[in-house]
Amino acid sequence: MLRLLHILGSFAVLGSSVATTWPNHIMDELEHLLVDTDGFNDAGLQKAITPCSNYVSGSQLLGRETAAQWVRVAFHDFATADVEAGTGGIDASIGFETLRPENSGAAMNDSLGFFAPFVNAHVSMADMIALSVVMSVGSCSAPSIHIPLRGGRVDATEGGLFGVPEPETDIHTTLNQFSQAGFSQSDAIGLTICGHTLGSVHHAGFPQVVPESAVTPNNTGGGIHFDATPDVFDVDVLNEYLEWKGQRGGPLVTTENITVRSDLRLYLSDNNATLQGLAESSSKFISTCVSLLTRMINTTPESVRLTEIITPNEVKPVNISLAVDSAGQVRFSGYIRIKSGAVIIRSWALSLGFILIACVSHRITWTSRSGASSPAFSTHAIAAQTGNSSMFGTTFYHFFNTTLDPAQGISAFKIMVMRSQDQSVQTLENGREGYPIEDVAVFLPHETTIASDGSLSLQAAVLTAADVQNVTAVISAPSPQLGTISPVIAKSVVNFERNGVRGLYTLFTATIPGVPNLRQTTLDLTAHGRGSLVYRDEFRRIAF
Ligand code: HEM
Ligand SMILES: *[C@@H]1O[C@H](CO)[C@@H](O)[C@H](O)[C@H]1NC(C)=O
Ligand SMILES: *[C@@H]1O[C@H](CO)[C@@H](O)[C@H](O)[C@H]1NC(C)=O
Ligand SMILES: *[C@@H]1O[C@H](CO)[C@@H](O)[C@H](O)[C@H]1NC(C)=O
Ligand SMILES: *[C@@H]1O[C@H](CO)[C@@H](O)[C@H](O)[C@H]1NC(C)=O
Ligand SMILES: *[C@@H]1O[C@H](CO)[C@@H](O)[C@H](O)[C@H]1NC(C)=O
Ligand SMILES: *[C@@H]1O[C@H](CO)[C@@H](O)[C@H](O)[C@H]1NC(C)=O
Ligand SMILES: *[C@@H]1O[C@H](CO)[C@@H](O)[C@H](O)[C@H]1NC(C)=O
Ligand SMILES: *[C@@H]1O[C@H](CO)[C@@H](O)[C@H](O)[C@H]1NC(C)=O
Fold first, then answer.
1. Span from the CA of 459 to the centroid of ligand 9 (angstroms)
2. Which residues, if any, are the signal sequence (predicted)?
């Protein structure tokens, strides 16, 4: 007993002092939304804008486009930033501001309503707004235009300043507003024409700009495009304006009512100089848009610390879990997601098809609770499913499901990827210590049950030898809040009670009230052992 405690103790210290790259919950979650966009394990975000002309919140005959709405929503959230005061920017305050005339139109609630089911303890609505810009621009361009994404934005709890420029706003006020948000005159011109390569101005919402004649049976919202390709992020809007052809820059340039020609006023404010500079080449236009849109989505309240840039993981552990079954057996299972680049099977796969993919097998090795290795601590991950991503290429999912010796346990695992092209093996160690995994206090999401009154019964297993005093969890539940369609994360603490024994583990259980969003409700489990020993199983979904 003493020996085991000593071992547990050293693990706890080790676990807290070693810097690892995984898990990083914000980055892991956003990476999933960004990369897993089709096929197996699809996160479901890109579907809304596939094809890019799609309108996800209503009839296709309305003349509306979700991809364009997402970019406009981000602009409206950003536009009231005050960089000197360090307030506003991308903070989802737009959700509280939808009834302001300056935010009129369906786009704000359409978009936030679509994003709401994705929000959880580590995915803020503000990060969803930023991600949606990255996804719109990346999906609606070929070759795909990549805006770097960072995470970590924090949602506002109330509306912010007024001041989003409107079609009626005079040029002086408009430029001052952009300047307050950190954007110079040429930045403002550039950002606006970059945004206005997607979508339309609609009679419904902007009758002072677009006449009723735009309304037709298959365009009932009366949308008039900014350029010939409203569903492609490209330079067309700029060329059409400068060459005065096609849509000539769109309704905010050409409308009969001079008062609402806001784009024309902006573009002429430096005698077209900025736009002529951007027209040098398509790549100049694109690279400027990437830079300006990056600055836009990274404009946040000064207290926000953004993460590193989120790049697709070449190899990523997915849904790794431990389960303690009724016989006290410990099951270790999960998926290893591998991007096509990591296993170079393309040229072979083409000729041999299914057979080759099925032969690609990767090994998972682990170290015991005390950090020991053994040839027995190993299993294979078998090719299971294929995912698709239009922006980042194909992903391959490899599944493993094995038993562990509960006396030995597990503290970390490593992934050995075999490259079928040359049979070479790459070992992924997540820094040096491997991918950490908690086996002293284990939440059991597969055993969550829902009672007829909606309440939830939660189960956890804690190694009996760890001699824990108490087990608690912080529940993070996305919940409705007044004034915005965006959820707030309601946190509550629940105490677990002892509930029998399973092999070397003691079971603990707790009951909580029903939650509005089962999929995105998560918990952080904490078990207090002797002295200052603490075991944590963090950011687990409460049910599978
Ligand atoms: C002076 C600045 C701006 C003004 C006055 C302005 C005004 C407008 C108006 C009136 C619409 C029509 C909305 C509708 O009918 O649904 C619109 C659409 C749009 N705006 Fe702007 N805008 C400005 C700058 C920007 C910027 C900086 C961006 C993004 C970087 C942007 C992105 C968009 C997009 C993507 C649409 C199409 C929305 C859709 O099709 O639903 N705008 N803008
Ligand atoms: C992935 O995309 C390819 C090409 O578009 C398609 O043929 C294939 O069926 C897709 N696979 C999945 C799993 O969706
Ligand atoms: C809408 O109808 C018009 C006239 O019938 C047609 O020319 C146009 O292509 C249609 N547009 C769409 C998006 O279906
Ligand atoms: C700016 O461009 C517009 C549209 O092509 C054109 O009508 C206008 O004359 C130009 N103005 C200047 C000062 O170049
Ligand atoms: C032009 O638009 C302004 C602002 O929306 C409006 O007050 C004015 O009545 C409009 N003028 C005409 C002739 O429609
Ligand atoms: C792993 O295998 C066991 C035994 O066959 C099964 O009960 C369990 O559901 C599997 N786990 C997963 C995640 O598929
Ligand atoms: C759990 O036990 C730890 C250590 O004994 C103690 O510090 C903590 O206050 C306890 N928490 C609860 C909720 O009882
Ligand atoms: C958007 O949704 C919020 C929250 O449900 C609501 O209070 C607001 O009135 C809605 N705005 C519009 C323009 O419908
Ligand atoms: C991973 O877990 C989530 C949440 O329980 C689930 O929705 C998703 O389908 C799982 N993915 C895989 C590949 O098992």
1. 19
2. 1-19
